């Protein structure tokens, strides 16, 4: 249930006649400021409308755990990042080391697999189009209508491996009112942004909407030698929407988006084993804290640390109303993405290991659905869909063989914390240094083609005036083709006579594999109305992640389908004329064939960790005690553990046991507008970044110097405080706001381990620091 929406002045009206899911117009008029209190009283009975079950429903009537935020909610919490949405959503965690490698976790199940043939466990959708590549999943939140986060198995409703939940992002559609919105902002870390949106009705049947955004910010970790920072932002976003209604029974909405990133600096991988050294003088230029300056760089033929990305998403939704009871919906999608990242992943200024990774691909999809309602006691849909993707990844690891000689031999690790410069390494090696290459490349080229066909349906029956039962199922036919090629562009390593960390395929051949699979998912449950605004529900769901073909240097292997059986029960209630609303749910699920990353025949690959289970509780609450005060909060408890194998008893990675958020909006109407102060505090408990939980017994390696003897690859419990102070002028014509995030300047990490962990020298990536900005906006 929406944790803010019951208190928002712009939530959609919660009556029994739900309107079409179109976006509000740009310059939607509000009542004058002097009557704002009357508007707030009217808003107390509002209840946001969502389409989680592929039909428009009040969120309080949807029998599942769901959080939805509309544009006003996002503005209230300063939600320019999807990570801010996760902060207030129980059971939803985003591990954001950068936009290239985000990890989305719902109820402990994480998706951040970058292999071209991989399927996300947490499905993402942009305007109904599935987002299946992790490197293209985290984009700019700009001109958003609403965001829905659905928890629990959603494969029946959404497919595309919505194994344990889904996140749907909807852009605003073109509206009927001429208008313009603009906003500029500036803040610390040289932050600035500018955006504008125009809504233009061209005729009685055609309207368009055009918007653009530019946003730039320095990174939170600075370079000790160069004029650059790490994890900076330099993004542009463009939006186009068109709505065509040639007849009363037909509507077409086209939404096209283009996102571009072009950032210097890369990811702030930082070693807490070796101090950063000036490579010319040997002087220490920093410390081992993950948030302080360092110097990271690539070498050889690799480009300087950077991140570039282009994403195009096109969605066309057509709705035909055949009669009062039947309608047809078609959603056609196209998505293209190309992302490149280079960086220094040993975390030190010494040239040891660097990388270049390029992920790219395109996809097309089509969903055709027959919707029905009031057919006797039944309502629901049946349909079919098609999805095709061609994806690729080119991954290069580059090494200085002279540094690797000491690292692979275990000598360098014993010299911590000072370590050595490259010149000192060469001096230790003596004449042997001349026989080693200053730059060696291991290259891995992977490709995948995915073809998927789905047949699905979901039906709800009104058994009595109070009792509804529902059931649905989806059959998915998958065909995957994958290939891998391992190359040594600069010849074999002089250290090993082959590759170093990535091995070549025999004679550089392209190894292929393919697999056909069929998966069946489903759900069944009931909803019972205890009172007019009190509903209880229970649902059983079966989610699956289809089989994946993995091609290693030793040949192809089939990664078995992951399966999740989930049972959930909950209650949703509204009271006091809508001033109080909330929900509570409990769940338990069992997981089979849990796939995680590990070493397979000397190569990093997917391994089967076996069985797992989780039990949890989630709650959300929104309360307006008096006019001028709105309170909201959420809480999630999730005990997710492995049940067998070497990880028995371990926690899931990126999965805190406890997580909560509390916030408020204190507002007052003045003669010329409204002033508002909205603080938000979010907290989460300890979280590991690897399924091995950094256990010492799982870090034992040969030689012994490779063993990581310190248990530090986790983030302890921490909380973040943010706030927004704003003044909105009469009729929303202009606004001014001060926004601050992480106001206490909490120092935390968003990832640990990484490539260096294989040699006992893990790296750590810093999270966001204290930021503040001023925003000025206009509407007319």
Describe the structure.
It is a single chain. The protein is 5% helix and 53% strand. The protein is mostly beta strands and 780 residues long. The protein has a single domain, classed as Maltoporin, Chain A, CATH 2.40.170.20. It is globular and about 85 Å long. It starts with 35 loop residues before the first helix and ends with a strand.
Give keywords:
5-stranded mixed sheet; 22-stranded antiparallel beta barrel; 780 residues; single chain; 6 helices; globular; mainly beta
Lay out the secondary structure.
Blueprint: H1 36-43, E1 49-50, E2 57-58, E3 65-70, H2 71-76, H3 82-87, E4 92-96, E5 102-106, E6 109-111, E7 123-126, E8 129-131, E9 144-151, H4 155-158, E10 165-171, E11 179-187, E12 191-201, E13 206-217, E14 221-222, E15 229-230, E16 233-247, E17 250-264, E18 270-271, E19 306-321, E20 326-343, E21 353-375, E22 378-399, H5 401-408, H6 422-429, E23 440-462, E24 467-487, E25 510-531, E26 534-545, E27 548-552, E28 555-559, E29 562-575, E30 580-592, E31 595-600, E32 603-608, E33 612-626, E34 629-642, E35 658-670, E36 673-684, E37 687-688, E38 714-715, E39 718-729, E40 734-741, E41 749-753, E42 763-766, E43 771-779
Parallel strand pairs: 7-10
Antiparallel strand pairs: 1-2, 3-9, 4-5, 5-6, 7-8, 9-10, 11-12, 11-43, 12-13, 13-16, 14-15, 16-17, 17-19, 18-42, 19-20, 20-21, 21-22, 22-23, 23-24, 24-25, 25-26, 26-29, 27-28, 29-30, 30-33, 31-32, 33-34, 34-35, 35-36, 36-39, 37-38, 39-40, 40-43, 41-42
């Amino acid at each position: 249930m929406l944790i803010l929406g019951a208190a928002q002045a712009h939530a959609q009206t919660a009556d029994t006649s739900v309107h079409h899911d179109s976006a509000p117009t740009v310059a939607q008029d509000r009542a004058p400021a002097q009557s704002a209190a009357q508007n707030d009283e009217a808003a107390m009975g509002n209840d946001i409308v969502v389409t989680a079950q592929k039909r428009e429903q009040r969120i309080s009537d949807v029998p599942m755990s769901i959080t939805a935020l509309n544009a006003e909610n996002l503005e209230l919490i300063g939600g320019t990042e999807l990570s801010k949405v996760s902060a207030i959503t129980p059971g939803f965690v985003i591990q954001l080391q950068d936009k290239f490698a985000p990890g989305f976790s719902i109820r402990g199940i994480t998706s951040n697999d970058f292999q071209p043939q991989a399927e996300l466990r947490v499905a993402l959708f942009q305007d109904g189009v599935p987002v299946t590549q992790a490197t293209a999943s985290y984009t700019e939140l700009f001109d958003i209508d609403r965001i829905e986060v659905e928890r629990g198995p959603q494969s029946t409703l959404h497919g595309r491996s919505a194994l344990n939940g889904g996140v749907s992002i909807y852009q605003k559609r073109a509206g009927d009112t001429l208008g313009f919105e603009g906003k500029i902002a500036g803040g610390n870390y040289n932050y600035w942004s500018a955006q504008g949106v125009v809504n233009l009705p061209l005729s009685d049947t055609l309207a368009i909407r055009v918007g653009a955004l530019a946003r730039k910010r320095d990174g939170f970790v600075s370079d000790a030698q160069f004029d650059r920072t790490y994890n900076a932002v330099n993004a542009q976003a463009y939006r186009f929407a068109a709505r065509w209604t040639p007849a009363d029974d037909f509507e077409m909405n086209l939404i096209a988006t283009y996102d571009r990133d072009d950032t210097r600096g890369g990811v702030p991988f930082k070693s807490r084993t070796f101090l950063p050294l000036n490579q010319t003088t040997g002087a220490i230029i920093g410390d081992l804290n993950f948030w302080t300056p360092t110097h990271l760089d690539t070498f050889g033929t690799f480009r300087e640390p950077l991140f570039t990305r282009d994403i195009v998403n096109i969605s066309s939704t057509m709705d035909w109303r055949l009669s009062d009871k039947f309608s047809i919906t078609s959603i056609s999608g196209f998505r293209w993405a190309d992302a490149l990242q280079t960086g220094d992943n040993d975390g030190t200024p010494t040239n040891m290991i660097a990388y270049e990774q390029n992920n790219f691909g395109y996809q097309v999809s089509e969903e055709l659905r027959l919707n029905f309602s009031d057919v006797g006691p039944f309502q629901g849909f049946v349909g079919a869909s098609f999805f095709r993707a061609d994806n690729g990844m080119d991954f290069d690891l580059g090494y200085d063989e002279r540094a690797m000689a000491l690292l692979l031999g275990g000598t360098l690790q014993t010299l911590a914390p000072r370590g050595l410069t490259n010149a000192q390494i060469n001096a230790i090696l003596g004449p042997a240094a001349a026989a080693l290459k200053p730059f060696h490349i291991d290259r891995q080229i992977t490709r995948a083609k995915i073809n998927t066909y789905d047949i699905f349906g979901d039906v709800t029956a009104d058994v009595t005036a109070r009792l509804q039962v529902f059931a649905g199922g989806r059959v998915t036919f998958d065909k995957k083709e994958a290939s891998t090629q391992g190359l040594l562009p600069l010849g074999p390593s002089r250290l090993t006579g082959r590759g170093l960390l990535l091995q070549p395929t025999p004679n550089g051949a392209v190894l292929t594999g393919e697999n056909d699979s069929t998966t069946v998912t489903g759900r069944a449950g009931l909803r019972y109305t205890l009172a007019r605004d009190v509903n209880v529900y229970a649902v059983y769901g079966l989610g699956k992640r289809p089989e994946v073909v993995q091609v290693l240097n030793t040949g192809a292997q089939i990664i078995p389908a992951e399966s999740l059986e989930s049972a959930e029960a909950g209650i949703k209630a509204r009271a006091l004329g809508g001033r109080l609303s909330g929900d509570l749910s409990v769940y338990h699920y069992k997981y089979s064939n849990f796939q995680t990353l590990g070493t397979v025949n000397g190569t990093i690959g997917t391994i089967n960790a076996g069985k797992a289970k989780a039990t949890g509780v989630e709650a959300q609450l929104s309360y307006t005690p008096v006019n001028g005060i709105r309170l909201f909060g959420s809480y999630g408890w999730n005990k997710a553990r492995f049940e067998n194998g070497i990880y028995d008893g371990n926690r899931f990675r990126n999965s805190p046991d406890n997580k909560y958020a509390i916030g408020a909006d204190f507002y007052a109407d003045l003669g010329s507008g409204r002033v508002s102060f909205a603080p938000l505090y979010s907290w989460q408990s300890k979280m590991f970044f690897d399924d091995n939980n950094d256990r010492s017994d799982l870090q034992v390696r040969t030689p012994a110097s490779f063993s990581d003897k310190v248990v530090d690859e986790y983030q302890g419990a921490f909380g973040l405080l943010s706030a927004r102070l704003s003044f909105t002028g009469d009729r929303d014509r202009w606004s001014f706001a001060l926004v601050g995030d992480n106001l206490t300047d909490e120092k935390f990490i968003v990832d640990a381990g990484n490539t260096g962990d294989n040699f006992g020298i893990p790296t750590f990536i810093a999270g966001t620091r204290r930021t503040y900005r001023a925003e000025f906006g206009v509407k007319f």
